[in-house]
Amino acid sequence: MIIITTTDSVMPQADVALPPNSNWPKTITNNNYVTGSMIMLANSDTLYASGPYVKDLSGMKIKRRGNSTGLYLDQHPYKLKLTKKKDLLFRNNPADDHKEWLLLSLYTWNTMMTEKESNIINMTGTTISQCLEKEWTPEYIFVHLILNGQYQGMYYLMEAVARGENRINISKEGFIIEDDTFFWNENIYTHTDQQPDNTAWTFKYPDDKDISSNEIDFINTTITTFEQALHRQEDISTLIDIESWAKWILIHDILGTDDALGCNKFYSIYNQTDNTIIKTGPIWDYDSSFRTKIGWSSLHHYGYYQKLFQRTDFVNAYLRLWNNIKPSLYHNYISRMEKLKQRFEYIFDESVKQHQKVYPNEGRKFSSQYDEINSLVAQRINILTQQIDNLTNSIYDIPQSQQPTSIYNMNGQRVRKPTPGLYIHNGRKFIVK
Asked: What is the DSSP string of 234-294?
Protein backbone atom coordinates (compact mmCIF):
# COMPACT_ATOMS: atom_id res chain seq x y z
CA MET A 1 0.00 0.00 0.00
CA ILE A 2 1.14 3.53 -0.82
CA ILE A 3 -0.04 6.40 1.38
CA ILE A 4 0.57 9.90 0.02
CA THR A 5 -0.21 13.07 1.94
CA THR A 6 0.25 16.25 -0.05
CA THR A 7 1.17 19.65 1.36
CA ASP A 8 -2.02 21.29 2.71
CA SER A 9 -3.93 18.27 1.31
CA VAL A 10 -3.96 19.81 -2.17
CA MET A 11 -5.12 17.23 -4.72
CA PRO A 12 -3.26 16.92 -8.06
CA GLN A 13 -5.36 18.58 -10.73
CA ALA A 14 -5.48 18.88 -14.52
CA ASP A 15 -7.45 20.73 -17.17
CA VAL A 16 -8.55 19.67 -20.64
CA ALA A 17 -6.11 20.68 -23.38
CA LEU A 18 -7.75 21.32 -26.74
CA PRO A 19 -5.57 20.69 -29.82
CA PRO A 20 -4.98 23.34 -32.50
CA ASN A 21 -6.60 21.01 -35.04
CA SER A 22 -10.06 19.69 -34.19
CA ASN A 23 -9.20 16.33 -35.78
CA TRP A 24 -6.39 15.74 -33.28
CA PRO A 25 -7.02 14.11 -29.88
CA LYS A 26 -7.42 16.03 -26.63
CA THR A 27 -5.17 15.57 -23.61
CA ILE A 28 -4.56 17.19 -20.22
CA THR A 29 -2.68 20.34 -19.24
CA ASN A 30 -1.90 22.35 -16.09
CA ASN A 31 -1.08 19.04 -14.44
CA ASN A 32 1.51 20.55 -12.14
CA TYR A 33 3.36 18.68 -9.42
CA VAL A 34 2.05 18.86 -5.85
CA THR A 35 4.57 18.35 -3.04
CA GLY A 36 4.05 15.93 -0.17
CA SER A 37 5.22 12.83 1.68
CA MET A 38 4.86 9.14 0.92
CA ILE A 39 4.84 5.93 2.95
CA MET A 40 4.91 2.45 1.48
CA LEU A 41 3.59 -0.42 3.62
CA ALA A 42 3.44 -4.21 3.37
CA ASN A 43 0.88 -5.29 5.95
CA SER A 44 2.06 -3.31 8.98
CA ASP A 45 5.71 -3.09 7.95
CA THR A 46 7.05 0.21 6.62
CA LEU A 47 9.06 -0.45 3.46
CA TYR A 48 9.72 3.15 2.58
CA ALA A 49 9.10 6.61 4.04
CA SER A 50 10.05 9.74 2.13
CA GLY A 51 9.69 12.10 5.06
CA PRO A 52 8.01 15.51 4.71
CA TYR A 53 8.77 17.55 1.63
CA VAL A 54 11.88 19.66 1.99
CA LYS A 55 13.40 20.77 -1.31
CA ASP A 56 16.46 18.69 -2.23
CA LEU A 57 16.35 16.88 1.14
CA SER A 58 13.22 14.75 1.58
CA GLY A 59 9.66 14.12 0.48
CA MET A 60 8.24 13.72 -3.02
CA LYS A 61 6.01 15.23 -5.70
CA ILE A 62 2.94 13.86 -7.46
CA LYS A 63 1.03 14.98 -10.56
CA ARG A 64 -1.69 13.73 -12.91
CA ARG A 65 -0.36 12.10 -16.08
CA GLY A 66 -1.57 10.40 -19.24
CA ASN A 67 -3.28 11.52 -22.42
CA SER A 68 -6.53 9.62 -23.02
CA THR A 69 -6.16 7.78 -19.69
CA GLY A 70 -5.47 11.01 -17.82
CA LEU A 71 -8.43 12.68 -19.50
CA TYR A 72 -11.15 10.03 -19.48
CA LEU A 73 -10.54 7.44 -16.76
CA ASP A 74 -12.24 7.84 -13.38
CA GLN A 75 -9.14 6.36 -11.77
CA HIS A 76 -6.50 8.98 -12.52
CA PRO A 77 -2.95 7.82 -13.34
CA TYR A 78 -0.12 9.67 -11.60
CA LYS A 79 3.58 10.35 -11.90
CA LEU A 80 5.73 10.35 -8.75
CA LYS A 81 9.03 12.15 -8.35
CA LEU A 82 11.01 11.32 -5.23
CA THR A 83 13.41 13.85 -3.78
CA LYS A 84 15.92 11.07 -3.11
CA LYS A 85 16.41 8.06 -5.37
CA LYS A 86 14.88 4.77 -4.21
CA ASP A 87 13.96 1.47 -5.82
CA LEU A 88 10.29 1.13 -4.91
CA LEU A 89 10.35 -2.46 -6.23
CA PHE A 90 13.05 -3.37 -3.69
CA ARG A 91 15.35 -5.42 -5.92
CA ASN A 92 18.47 -4.86 -3.82
CA ASN A 93 20.48 -3.28 -6.62
CA PRO A 94 21.60 0.36 -6.25
CA ALA A 95 21.39 0.74 -10.05
CA ASP A 96 17.60 0.38 -9.74
CA ASP A 97 17.28 3.38 -7.42
CA HIS A 98 15.45 6.20 -9.18
CA LYS A 99 13.39 9.31 -8.57
CA GLU A 100 10.74 8.78 -11.27
CA TRP A 101 7.86 6.30 -10.89
CA LEU A 102 4.36 5.85 -12.27
CA LEU A 103 1.03 4.82 -10.83
CA LEU A 104 -0.95 3.41 -13.79
CA SER A 105 -4.67 2.77 -13.63
CA LEU A 106 -5.75 -0.85 -13.23
CA TYR A 107 -8.42 -0.64 -15.90
CA THR A 108 -7.54 -1.03 -19.58
CA TRP A 109 -10.21 -0.82 -22.25
CA ASN A 110 -9.75 -3.49 -24.91
CA THR A 111 -12.47 -4.60 -27.30
CA MET A 112 -10.99 -8.09 -27.71
CA MET A 113 -11.41 -8.97 -24.03
CA THR A 114 -14.53 -10.17 -22.24
CA GLU A 115 -16.51 -7.14 -21.07
CA LYS A 116 -14.00 -5.08 -23.11
CA GLU A 117 -11.70 -4.86 -20.11
CA SER A 118 -8.32 -6.17 -19.06
CA ASN A 119 -6.35 -5.60 -15.88
CA ILE A 120 -3.30 -7.66 -16.90
CA ILE A 121 -2.68 -6.59 -20.49
CA ASN A 122 0.36 -4.59 -19.33
CA MET A 123 1.68 -7.80 -17.79
CA THR A 124 1.31 -9.61 -21.11
CA GLY A 125 2.93 -6.81 -23.12
CA THR A 126 5.95 -6.50 -20.85
CA THR A 127 6.35 -10.28 -20.85
CA ILE A 128 6.49 -10.42 -24.66
CA SER A 129 9.03 -7.58 -24.57
CA GLN A 130 11.16 -9.57 -22.12
CA CYS A 131 10.90 -12.68 -24.30
CA LEU A 132 12.52 -10.70 -27.11
CA GLU A 133 15.13 -9.31 -24.69
CA LYS A 134 14.32 -5.68 -25.43
CA GLU A 135 17.08 -3.43 -24.14
CA TRP A 136 14.92 -2.33 -21.20
CA THR A 137 11.40 -3.33 -20.21
CA PRO A 138 9.79 -1.45 -17.29
CA GLU A 139 8.98 -3.57 -14.25
CA TYR A 140 6.07 -3.19 -11.84
CA ILE A 141 4.07 -4.43 -8.86
CA PHE A 142 0.43 -3.98 -7.87
CA VAL A 143 -0.31 -1.53 -5.05
CA HIS A 144 -3.24 0.18 -3.33
CA LEU A 145 -3.16 3.98 -3.19
CA ILE A 146 -4.48 6.22 -0.45
CA LEU A 147 -4.17 9.90 -1.38
CA ASN A 148 -4.92 12.48 1.32
CA GLY A 149 -6.90 9.91 3.26
CA GLN A 150 -9.04 8.83 0.28
CA TYR A 151 -8.72 5.33 -1.19
CA GLN A 152 -8.00 5.65 -4.93
CA GLY A 153 -7.97 1.99 -5.92
CA MET A 154 -5.46 -0.57 -7.10
CA TYR A 155 -2.63 0.51 -9.39
CA TYR A 156 0.39 -0.67 -11.31
CA LEU A 157 3.44 0.88 -9.63
CA MET A 158 5.79 0.95 -12.62
CA GLU A 159 9.17 2.30 -13.62
CA ALA A 160 8.89 5.51 -15.64
CA VAL A 161 10.60 6.04 -18.99
CA ALA A 162 13.74 7.86 -17.89
CA ARG A 163 17.51 7.90 -18.10
CA GLY A 164 19.18 5.45 -15.72
CA GLU A 165 21.79 2.72 -15.51
CA ASN A 166 19.07 0.06 -15.41
CA ARG A 167 16.54 2.00 -17.47
CA ILE A 168 17.47 3.80 -20.68
CA ASN A 169 21.23 3.79 -20.36
CA ILE A 170 22.52 6.93 -22.07
CA SER A 171 25.19 9.43 -21.10
CA LYS A 172 24.38 12.70 -19.35
CA GLU A 173 24.84 14.34 -22.75
CA GLY A 174 22.37 11.95 -24.41
CA PHE A 175 18.67 12.25 -25.22
CA ILE A 176 15.39 10.42 -24.81
CA ILE A 177 12.92 11.72 -27.37
CA GLU A 178 9.38 10.87 -28.41
CA ASP A 179 7.67 10.93 -31.79
CA ASP A 180 4.76 12.67 -30.14
CA THR A 181 1.17 13.19 -31.26
CA PHE A 182 0.66 15.61 -28.38
CA PHE A 183 3.68 17.79 -29.17
CA TRP A 184 1.47 20.89 -29.32
CA ASN A 185 0.95 20.54 -25.56
CA GLU A 186 4.70 20.73 -24.81
CA ASN A 187 6.91 23.79 -24.33
CA ILE A 188 9.69 22.57 -26.62
CA TYR A 189 9.50 20.40 -29.72
CA THR A 190 11.09 20.10 -33.16
CA HIS A 191 9.60 18.89 -36.42
CA THR A 192 11.51 17.05 -39.16
CA ASP A 193 10.65 16.92 -42.86
CA GLN A 194 9.52 13.30 -43.01
CA GLN A 195 7.17 13.56 -40.03
CA PRO A 196 3.47 14.07 -40.71
CA ASP A 197 2.05 17.42 -39.60
CA ASN A 198 0.33 15.88 -36.59
CA THR A 199 3.52 14.69 -34.85
CA ALA A 200 6.81 16.26 -33.75
CA TRP A 201 9.78 15.38 -31.54
CA THR A 202 9.50 16.11 -27.83
CA PHE A 203 12.02 15.53 -25.05
CA LYS A 204 11.80 13.07 -22.14
CA TYR A 205 15.43 13.73 -21.24
CA PRO A 206 16.80 16.25 -20.55
CA ASP A 207 14.09 18.43 -19.01
CA ASP A 208 12.81 21.30 -21.12
CA LYS A 209 14.54 23.84 -18.89
CA ASP A 210 17.91 22.18 -19.51
CA ILE A 211 17.74 21.96 -23.33
CA SER A 212 19.73 24.43 -25.42
CA SER A 213 18.92 25.56 -28.95
CA ASN A 214 22.09 23.81 -30.14
CA GLU A 215 20.84 20.53 -28.67
CA ILE A 216 17.49 20.93 -30.40
CA ASP A 217 19.34 21.55 -33.67
CA PHE A 218 21.48 18.44 -33.04
CA ILE A 219 18.37 16.26 -32.63
CA ASN A 220 16.76 17.71 -35.72
CA THR A 221 19.92 17.21 -37.78
CA THR A 222 20.49 13.67 -36.50
CA ILE A 223 16.96 12.56 -37.34
CA THR A 224 16.88 14.42 -40.64
CA THR A 225 20.10 12.69 -41.71
CA PHE A 226 18.46 9.33 -41.03
CA GLU A 227 15.25 10.33 -42.82
CA GLN A 228 17.16 11.41 -45.92
CA ALA A 229 19.21 8.20 -46.02
CA LEU A 230 16.06 6.15 -45.60
CA HIS A 231 14.28 8.07 -48.36
CA ARG A 232 17.23 7.66 -50.73
CA GLN A 233 17.71 3.97 -49.93
CA GLU A 234 21.22 4.69 -48.62
CA ASP A 235 23.12 2.94 -45.84
CA ILE A 236 21.45 3.48 -42.45
CA SER A 237 23.51 1.05 -40.35
CA THR A 238 25.61 3.92 -38.94
CA LEU A 239 22.53 6.01 -38.18
CA ILE A 240 20.15 3.66 -36.37
CA ASP A 241 20.43 0.40 -34.45
CA ILE A 242 18.64 -1.76 -37.01
CA GLU A 243 18.14 -4.70 -34.65
CA SER A 244 16.64 -2.44 -31.98
CA TRP A 245 14.17 -1.03 -34.51
CA ALA A 246 13.33 -4.50 -35.85
CA LYS A 247 12.77 -5.83 -32.34
CA TRP A 248 10.45 -2.93 -31.46
CA ILE A 249 8.15 -3.49 -34.43
CA LEU A 250 8.27 -7.28 -34.07
CA ILE A 251 6.90 -6.97 -30.52
CA HIS A 252 4.05 -4.83 -31.83
CA ASP A 253 3.40 -7.35 -34.62
CA ILE A 254 3.28 -10.23 -32.12
CA LEU A 255 0.80 -8.33 -29.96
CA GLY A 256 -1.23 -7.11 -32.94
CA THR A 257 -1.46 -3.54 -31.63
CA ASP A 258 -3.72 -1.10 -33.46
CA ASP A 259 -2.78 2.41 -32.36
CA ALA A 260 -0.28 3.77 -34.88
CA LEU A 261 -0.94 7.43 -34.19
CA GLY A 262 -1.54 7.52 -30.44
CA CYS A 263 1.12 5.00 -29.44
CA ASN A 264 4.08 6.33 -27.46
CA LYS A 265 7.17 5.97 -29.65
CA PHE A 266 10.33 6.57 -27.61
CA TYR A 267 13.88 6.73 -28.96
CA SER A 268 17.28 7.22 -27.35
CA ILE A 269 20.52 8.81 -28.51
CA TYR A 270 23.52 7.94 -26.33
CA ASN A 271 25.50 11.15 -26.70
CA GLN A 272 26.13 14.11 -28.99
CA THR A 273 28.98 12.74 -31.10
CA ASP A 274 28.92 12.31 -34.88
CA ASN A 275 28.93 8.50 -34.62
CA THR A 276 25.93 8.21 -32.30
CA ILE A 277 23.00 6.06 -33.44
CA ILE A 278 19.25 6.14 -32.76
CA LYS A 279 17.79 3.28 -30.73
CA THR A 280 14.16 2.50 -30.05
CA GLY A 281 12.98 2.87 -26.48
CA PRO A 282 10.69 0.57 -24.51
CA ILE A 283 7.32 -0.59 -25.79
CA TRP A 284 4.50 1.45 -24.30
CA ASP A 285 0.71 1.60 -24.66
CA TYR A 286 -0.32 -2.05 -24.69
CA ASP A 287 -4.04 -1.23 -24.50
CA SER A 288 -4.64 -1.80 -28.24
CA SER A 289 -3.07 -5.29 -28.24
CA PHE A 290 -4.91 -8.00 -30.22
CA ARG A 291 -7.18 -5.47 -31.94
CA THR A 292 -5.49 -6.34 -35.25
CA LYS A 293 -7.28 -9.63 -35.89
CA ILE A 294 -5.34 -10.52 -39.03
CA GLY A 295 -2.04 -9.40 -40.49
CA TRP A 296 0.52 -6.98 -39.13
CA SER A 297 0.14 -4.40 -36.41
CA SER A 298 -0.96 -0.99 -37.65
CA LEU A 299 2.51 0.39 -36.89
CA HIS A 300 4.01 -2.04 -39.44
CA HIS A 301 2.70 0.23 -42.20
CA TYR A 302 3.19 3.56 -40.43
CA GLY A 303 5.87 6.23 -40.58
CA TYR A 304 9.46 5.08 -40.95
CA TYR A 305 8.52 1.40 -40.89
CA GLN A 306 6.71 1.69 -44.20
CA LYS A 307 10.06 2.42 -45.85
CA LEU A 308 12.15 0.20 -43.57
CA PHE A 309 10.23 -2.85 -44.72
CA GLN A 310 11.22 -2.03 -48.30
CA ARG A 311 14.89 -2.57 -47.40
CA THR A 312 16.81 -5.84 -47.55
CA ASP A 313 18.91 -5.06 -44.48
CA PHE A 314 15.87 -4.32 -42.31
CA VAL A 315 13.73 -7.21 -43.59
CA ASN A 316 16.65 -9.59 -42.99
CA ALA A 317 17.11 -8.29 -39.43
CA TYR A 318 13.39 -8.68 -38.75
CA LEU A 319 13.28 -12.22 -40.16
CA ARG A 320 16.45 -13.21 -38.32
CA LEU A 321 14.93 -12.11 -35.00
CA TRP A 322 11.70 -13.94 -35.73
CA ASN A 323 13.44 -17.16 -36.75
CA ASN A 324 15.54 -17.08 -33.57
CA ILE A 325 12.62 -16.66 -31.18
CA LYS A 326 9.80 -18.44 -33.01
CA PRO A 327 10.54 -22.08 -31.95
CA SER A 328 10.37 -21.30 -28.22
CA LEU A 329 8.38 -18.05 -28.13
CA TYR A 330 5.09 -19.34 -26.74
CA HIS A 331 6.79 -21.70 -24.30
CA ASN A 332 9.03 -18.89 -23.10
CA TYR A 333 6.05 -16.58 -22.77
CA ILE A 334 3.94 -19.09 -20.82
CA SER A 335 6.85 -19.95 -18.55
CA ARG A 336 7.27 -16.30 -17.61
CA MET A 337 3.53 -15.76 -17.21
CA GLU A 338 3.20 -18.79 -14.94
CA LYS A 339 5.77 -17.27 -12.59
CA LEU A 340 3.83 -14.00 -12.58
CA LYS A 341 0.62 -15.90 -11.91
CA GLN A 342 2.15 -17.64 -8.92
CA ARG A 343 3.43 -14.31 -7.64
CA PHE A 344 0.35 -12.15 -8.20
CA GLU A 345 -2.86 -14.21 -8.57
CA TYR A 346 -3.90 -14.54 -4.92
CA ILE A 347 -2.87 -10.98 -4.05
CA PHE A 348 -4.64 -9.64 -7.13
CA ASP A 349 -7.93 -11.46 -6.50
CA GLU A 350 -8.03 -10.39 -2.86
CA SER A 351 -7.00 -6.81 -3.60
CA VAL A 352 -9.43 -6.27 -6.47
CA LYS A 353 -12.32 -6.76 -4.01
CA GLN A 354 -11.23 -3.54 -2.31
CA HIS A 355 -10.79 -1.84 -5.68
CA GLN A 356 -14.37 -2.75 -6.65
CA LYS A 357 -15.76 -0.87 -3.66
CA VAL A 358 -14.72 2.32 -5.46
CA TYR A 359 -14.97 1.05 -9.06
CA PRO A 360 -17.69 -1.61 -8.96
CA ASN A 361 -17.63 -2.25 -12.71
CA GLU A 362 -13.88 -2.86 -12.88
CA GLY A 363 -11.76 -5.90 -12.12
CA ARG A 364 -12.09 -9.56 -13.08
CA LYS A 365 -10.61 -12.66 -11.52
CA PHE A 366 -7.00 -13.10 -12.47
CA SER A 367 -7.50 -16.66 -13.75
CA SER A 368 -10.26 -15.73 -16.21
CA GLN A 369 -8.18 -12.93 -17.69
CA TYR A 370 -5.06 -15.08 -17.68
CA ASP A 371 -6.52 -17.89 -19.78
CA GLU A 372 -8.19 -15.50 -22.19
CA ILE A 373 -5.16 -13.33 -22.80
CA ASN A 374 -2.85 -16.33 -23.29
CA SER A 375 -5.26 -17.65 -25.91
CA LEU A 376 -5.07 -14.31 -27.72
CA VAL A 377 -1.26 -14.42 -27.65
CA ALA A 378 -1.31 -17.93 -29.15
CA GLN A 379 -3.65 -16.73 -31.90
CA ARG A 380 -1.40 -13.77 -32.68
CA ILE A 381 1.69 -15.98 -32.91
CA ASN A 382 -0.13 -18.27 -35.36
CA ILE A 383 -1.33 -15.28 -37.42
CA LEU A 384 2.15 -13.77 -37.51
CA THR A 385 3.72 -17.10 -38.43
CA GLN A 386 1.46 -17.30 -41.48
CA GLN A 387 2.05 -13.65 -42.32
CA ILE A 388 5.83 -14.02 -42.22
CA ASP A 389 5.72 -17.30 -44.14
CA ASN A 390 3.77 -15.52 -46.89
CA LEU A 391 6.35 -12.74 -46.88
CA THR A 392 9.37 -15.01 -47.15
CA ASN A 393 7.73 -17.27 -49.74
CA SER A 394 6.98 -14.25 -51.94
CA ILE A 395 10.53 -12.85 -51.82
CA TYR A 396 13.30 -14.06 -54.08
CA ASP A 397 16.68 -12.65 -55.02
CA ILE A 398 17.56 -11.41 -58.49
CA PRO A 399 21.18 -10.49 -59.26
CA GLN A 400 21.56 -7.00 -60.72
CA SER A 401 22.76 -8.48 -64.04
CA GLN A 402 19.47 -10.39 -64.37
CA GLN A 403 17.00 -7.74 -63.26
CA PRO A 404 13.69 -7.66 -65.19
CA THR A 405 12.81 -4.54 -67.15
CA SER A 406 9.34 -3.98 -65.68
CA ILE A 407 9.82 -3.54 -61.98
CA TYR A 408 8.05 -1.36 -59.42
CA ASN A 409 8.81 -0.07 -55.94
CA MET A 410 6.56 -0.79 -52.95
CA ASN A 411 4.53 2.34 -53.76
CA GLY A 412 3.65 0.99 -57.21
CA GLN A 413 5.96 3.35 -59.09
CA ARG A 414 7.93 1.98 -62.03
CA VAL A 415 11.69 2.00 -61.47
CA ARG A 416 14.27 2.00 -64.26
CA LYS A 417 17.47 1.58 -62.21
CA PRO A 418 16.63 0.05 -58.86
CA THR A 419 18.98 0.53 -55.94
CA PRO A 420 19.27 -2.21 -53.25
CA GLY A 421 15.86 -2.83 -51.70
CA LEU A 422 12.49 -4.55 -52.07
CA TYR A 423 10.59 -4.41 -55.38
CA ILE A 424 7.71 -6.05 -57.28
CA HIS A 425 7.88 -7.92 -60.61
CA ASN A 426 4.99 -9.94 -62.08
CA GLY A 427 3.11 -9.63 -58.82
CA ARG A 428 5.96 -11.07 -56.74
CA LYS A 429 8.33 -9.31 -54.39
CA PHE A 430 12.06 -9.55 -54.97
CA ILE A 431 15.18 -8.14 -53.37
CA VAL A 432 17.89 -6.26 -55.20
CA LYS A 433 21.16 -6.70 -53.31
From this structure: ---TTTB-HHHHHHHHHHHHHHT---TTTS--EEEE--SSTT--EEE------TTTT---S
Per the CB < 8 A criterion, the answer to whether 139 and 344 are in contact is no
Q: What's the pLDDT at 263?
A: 77
Series of mean pLDDT values for 10-residue runs along the chain (433 residues): 97 96 93 98 95 98 94 95 98 97 94 90 97 97 98 98 97 96 95 92 95 96 96 95 97 92 89 92 93 91 92 93 96 98 96 95 91 96 91 52 56 68 63 59
pTM of the model: 0.90
Tell me the sheet residues that pair with 280: 267
- Distance between start and end Cα atoms, the chain: 58
Rounded Cα distance between 227 and 202, Å, is 17
Cβ burial 269-308 (10 Å sphere, 16+ → b, else e): bbeeeeebbbbbbbbbbbbbbbbbeeebbbbbebbbbebb
Which H or E run contains 332? Answer: helix 329-358
Q: What is the pLDDT of residue 414?
A: 74
Q: State how far Cα 140 lies from the chain centre.
A: 14
What number of helices (H) and strands (E) belong to the chain? Answer: 8, 21
What is the structure's pLDDT at 40? 98
Single out the residue of 121, 132, 155 nearest to residue 340, CA to CA: 121
- State residue 247 phi and psi, 5-degree precision: -65, -40
The alpha carbon torsion through 129, 299, 326, 338 (nearest 10 deg) reads 40
Half-sphere exposure of 165 (CA within 13 A, CB side): 8
Rounded to whole angstroms, how far apart are CA atoms 329 and 360? 36
Q: What is the structure's pLDDT at 283?
A: 94
By three-state DSSP, how is residue 425 classified? strand
Q: Is the dihedral of CA 41, 46, 48, 52 positive or negative?
A: positive
Cα distances from 168 to residues 87, 93, 242, 358, in angstroms, run: 15, 16, 17, 36
The sign of the torsion formed by the CA atoms of 197, 203, 207, 209 equals negative
Three-state DSSP class for residue 371: helix
